[in-house]
Amino acid sequence: MDADIETYVKSCVQCARGKSSHLKSGGLLQPLPIPSLPWEETSIDLIVGLPVKEEGWDAILTIVCRLTKMAHFIPTTQTASAEDIARLILQEVIRLHGVPRAILSDRDTRFTGEL
Predict the structure, then answer these.
(1) Are 44 and 89 within 8 A, CB to CB?
(2) From 9-13, 46-50, 76-80, 103-107, the region with the lowest mean pLDDT
């Protein structure tokens, strides 16, 4: 029974999102260096808590070039998995701008987990 509980908890998205982080707090904030090329570095985040649209969207994935500040706003859902987010990035950004050298994000479990 313990194995069943452990398997369930490991596969539960709600459990992973509610789990507190055991990482030590970050150090002194430092400014990031300015990228030298467009779309060399991007920032990503999810805007959640939006009203549900007819298509089922209730969140927006934002992807911003750190140099030019050009942005892509991609409709998605709050329950999108890491694989779903990766697929959106591939279809909507990498297809147009190439693979970025770095992607900056917050500590959302979809961005920090293993993909």
Answers:
(1) yes
(2) 9-13
**Are 42 and 103 a contacting pair, CB within 8 Å?**
yes
- Strand ranges inside the chain, DSSP E: 41-47, 59-65, 71-76, 102-104
Alpha helices in 12-68 (DSSP H): 13-18
Total of domains in the chain: 1
Check: CB of residue 105 under 8 Å from CB of residue 96.
Answer: no
Note whether residue 86 is domain-resident: yes
Domain that holds residue 81: 34-115
Residue 7 placed within a domain = no
Q: Read off the pTM.
A: 0.70
**Cα–Cα distance measured from residue 17 to residue 105, given in angstroms and rounded to the nearest whole number:** 16
H helix intervals, 1-115: 2-11, 13-18, 82-89, 95-97, 109-112
